[in-house]
Amino acid sequence: MTEHSQDASSPLIDGFALPDRLSTDPRSPHHVAAVFTRDIGILLNGKVFTNVEEYCISEGWVKVPAGKTRDRKGQPLLIKLKGKVQAFYQ
Predict the structure, then answer these.
(1) Rounded CA gap, 79 and 67, in Å?
(2) Average pLDDT across the chain, whole number
(3) Cα–Cα 20 to 30 A to 27, which of 19, 56, 74, 90?
(4) Residues contacting residue 15 through CB under 8 Å, at least 6 positions apart
(5) Is the model's pLDDT at 75 over the cut of 70?
(6) Domain presence at residue 83
């Protein structure tokens, strides 16, 4: 048997590794529907976030909704938080 090592920053579940940049918005070019078969958690500066709309590991930011505030098209207003980002399957 051979042993397969995985990179900790992109775990492989059901054949899908978490990408460097991902968005929950289906209109975004960074949306990959296949990875949403399982719940995804984001660790930002040691704190777990489950309400992240978009993230980028290499640039070190996440976008989270700003409360219940909506823009004129009905989409949530997003705040960009910066720090060390890690994505994982829950």
Answers:
(1) 10
(2) 84
(3) 90
(4) none
(5) yes
(6) yes
